[in-house]
Design a protein that fits this description.
The chain is built from 15 helices and 18 strands. With 477 residues, the protein is of the alpha/beta class. The longest helix is centred in the C-terminal third of the chain and has 19 residues.
């Protein structure tokens, strides 16, 4: 009897049920004319606005199933797909039922941060290739288990740090490495994105009847919500999110690390910041500075979610940019997002252009059956995300400190002293007492084990917190 792929999958599933062995579908290359069938889980802005159209526009790629614990989102998205693309899709509330589909090859994972780890591991175990949004993980240890799952089940997993597919940035980094401006001295990355208060309710937010709240919470604590919005604002609550320095910052940190050629975590890290003015139900900082001490060169990151000053309509900028990565070298500087290089006198000396499509890169890798073709393979995404987590962990184990204590902590790092002074000026402009800021400790990083040296509290956050039965498995063996 001819053993087809479908028969093999069916036999493997039976073997798993009988013998308790994992279902591992051997990776195969898809021919140019083979249809790739996609299931998309998570139907918020990225799922509906990026994953579905980015898959559907590619020849031979079809979204055949969608999943979200909110039935209202499911119904609306199914109607949108039928109207826009002329075909129906199967709808699932529980992603595990969609993953059970043997005819689905790829999962577009647009769940919230705290769901990325477990859902990606489940999808890999079910034999699916995965495009998973950034930040890759909610915890450092969890990200490593995602890498382990991709290896164990031989799956192709792309992280949604799409700057990796931007040709202009690749050209600029290559130009820097050729030595046109000399050695890199340091990199400044920044996100000046206006955010507003999450609100602070007196009574818990009503959960819509259309939403399976247990599935929505998944690995996170199942607790009453006191902010005004359930969905997007969950990015600004440590239980379900990772704050601006990871939510947005993973893009900048990924580009900075790419430029430096660093392949692991920094040697040490420190963060200072606070959640100022809002007095709301969220708890991540809305103003934050971080110093990542890499061997090649340091990376400094700053977050401003507040206006430039009290009463101002403008946001802060760094050298005229609101969000970006600027590389300072011995002989000048380069804005990697704008694609412009200047000499030491500020004269423009080079421009870089070119785009790219991260979803196309992913499908090409799936067709080739070759993870090395990916621009942001899961381990790349893991390291960049884990770097951001180290900065946040310093903040989370920190304490409110006076300006004098803050200055003393960073006195031996002149570059960070400059950033800290900008931080203080920003607080003053918004009439915020700088003595209410949280000073994180310097954390020494065990770069090989991806944890911290001699800091038990910080290492609890490295491993993470999970709610049964949504527990991320240890796949390190």
């Amino acid at each position: 009897m001819k053993i087809t792929r479908r028969r093999f999958v069916k036999w493997s599933a039976s073997a798993a049920a009988v013998f308790g062995v994992p279902v591992v579908v051997p990776r195969r290359a898809f021919g140019a004319n083979d249809e790739i069938r996609v299931g998309v889980v998570g139907l918020g802005g990225r799922g509906r606005g990026a994953h579905i159209p980015s898959f559907q526009k590619q020849d031979g790629v079809t979204v055949v199933a969608i999943c979200d614990p909110d039935r209202e989102r499911l119904t609306a998205t199914a109607k949108m797909i039928e109207h826009a693309y002329g075909h129906k899709v199967e709808q699932y509330v529980d992603m595990r039922h969609m993953f059970d589909r043997k005819d689905i090859d790829v999962i577009g994972n647009a769940t919230q941060n705290y769901w990325h780890g477990l859902s990606t591991i489940w999808a890999c175990r079910a034999g699916k290739h995965v495009y998973v949004e950034k930040p890759l993980s909610h915890y450092i240890w969890e990200g490593r288990q995602m890498v382990n799952a991709a290896r164990k089940y031989d799956r192709i997993v792309q992280c949604g740090t799409q700057r990796r597919s931007q040709t202009s940035i690749a050209k600029a980094i290559a130009w820097i490495r050729e030595g046109h401006l000399g050695k890199i001295r340091y990199i400044t990355a920044f996100a000046n994105k206006r955010r507003t208060s999450c609100g602070k309710r007196d009574t818990p937010l009503p959960i819509p009847e259309t939403l399976d709240y247990d599935l929505w919470c998944g690995p996170a604590k199942k607790v009453p919500i006191y902010r005004n919005r359930l969905q997007y604002d969950c990015s600004f609550d440590w239980n379900t999110g990772d704050g601006e320095s990871c939510n947005q910052g993973v893009h900048e940190m990924d580009v900075a690390r790419w430029c430096l050629g660093e392949t692991t975590l920094p040697r040490r890290v420190i963060s200072i910041g606070g959640r100022f003015l809002f007095n709301d139900a969220c708890d991540v900082p809305n103003t934050q500075i971080i110093y990542y001490d890499f061997p090649t060169a340091p990376v400094l990151y700053e977050v401003h979610n507040l206006r430039k000053a009290k009463g101002s309509k403008d946001m802060p900028t760094f050298r005229g940019e609101r969000v970006g990565v600027i590389v300072d070298c011995e002989g000048g500087s380069v804005s990697l997002y704008r694609g412009i290089a200047w000499d030491k006198e500020g004269k423009e000396v080079q421009r870089f252009s070119g785009g790219g499509d991260h979803f196309v890169n992913f499908i090409e890798a799936v067709r080739k059956g070759d993870r090395s073709h990916l621009n942001a393979e899961v381990e790349v995404g893991h390291i960049s995300t884990a770097v951001c987590h180290t900065g946040n962990i310093s903040y989370r184990v920190g304490q409110v400190a006076s300006v004098e204590q803050q200055r003393a902590a960073v006195a031996d790092v002149p570059l960070f002293c400059e950033m800290h002074e900008r931080f203080l000026e920003h607080l003053k402009a918004n009439e915020i007492d700088p003595n209410t800021a949280t000073l994180g400790p310097w954390l020494d990083v065990d770069r090989e084990r991806e944890c911290f040296k001699d800091h038990a509290e910080a290492n609890k956050i490295v491993h993470g917190f999970y709610r049964s039965p949504y527990i991320v498995p240890d796949l390190s063996g």
